[in-house]
Write a structure and sequence with these properties.
There is one protein chain. Strands 1, 2, 3, 4, 5 and 15 form a six-stranded antiparallel β-sheet that branches. The protein is built from four helices and 15 strands. It has helices at residues 23-32, 173-179, 181-209, 213-220; strands at residues 4-15, 38-39, 44-53, 59-60, 68-79, 86-94, 98-103, 107-112, 120-125, 128-133, 140-141, 146-155, 160-164, 171-172, 226-231.
Length: 244
């Protein structure tokens, strides 16, 4: 599946002095608070991170007293879908006018009737709504189908995707896997990758819910909470910051 990027970043993370004796825990909580939401600095949705500390001590930051700064290096997995990219998700709702999909267990997508190619028509089969292909009788889209679709647009604020099934390389993944050589290769690689990311996403979500909310609030209160010194998905040296 497309839409992923791994970035190496040098970070300065702001923590409250009350967390000075729990630096690593505070840093983890700080970054965890940005999971599964779009952020302009990352230019995408942060799905996962792996962090290593350059210095495990915290230092006073000039201009943002009384907060402390911790330098760290991180590898970030970012989800940043763009128009025409191919994504995969599970159909969770289907009607005459639209197909609703969940991508990676957290992002919703909708494909409206005008973006579904003409070979698919809405039908009732065995009491359930489906979109069935007139060209290939076994190519059926229903609730529970793993679907490959193209991105039309991405609403960053609510992490919502508008999708399309106009292209012939979109549709039920199981059908595409059986009937197209390229589709089979694409499916075998991307479905495994998507499943691993979705499992990681669910695990991180569960861990986040179990965190002490008081600790998270004290960290969030210091604003965005970190400076991204460099973001190098393409080995560039751009400097980005987040105001506190």
């Amino acid at each position: 599946m497309e839409g992923f990027r791994i970035s190496d970043a040098n970070l300065i993370i702001y923590i409250h002095p009350s967390k000075a004796n729990k630096v690593q825990q505070a840093v983890f909580h700080q970054l965890s608070s940005f999971l599964f939401q779009f952020d302009e600095v990352f230019n995408g949705v942060l799905l996962a991170f792996e962090i290593s500390f350059q210095d495990k001590t915290a230092k006073l930051l000039p201009g943002v007293a009384p907060y402390l700064g911790v330098r760290a290096k991180a590898k970030l997995l970012v989800f940043s879908p763009k128009p025409d990219m191919l994504l995969e998700g599970k159909v969770v709702k289907l009607g005459r006018e639209s197909i609703h999909v969940i991508v990676l267990g957290f992002s919703s997508a909708v494909i409206i009737s005008e973006d579904i190619r003409e070979e698919f028509s809405h039908k009732i089969k065995h009491g359930k709504e489906v979109f069935a292909s007139s060209s290939h009788k076994k190519h059926v889209i229903k609730v529970g189908t793993m679907l490959r679709f193209a991105v039309k647009s991405f609403d960053e604020e609510i992490v919502h995707i508008s999708g399309s099934l106009v292209s012939t390389d979109t549709g039920s993944i199981s059908w595409l896997n059986q009937h197209t050589t390229d589709g089979a290769l694409f499916h075998n690689y991307s479905t495994q990758e998507s499943s691993e990311i979705e499992r990681s996403s669910k695990k991180l979500k569960k861990n986040s819910k179990e965190q002490d909310e008081k600790e998270l609030d004290s960290i969030r209160n210091c604003g965005k909470g970190f400076v991204l010194e460099s973001d190098r998905p393409h080995k560039s040296k751009k400097r980005r910051t987040i105001d506190s």
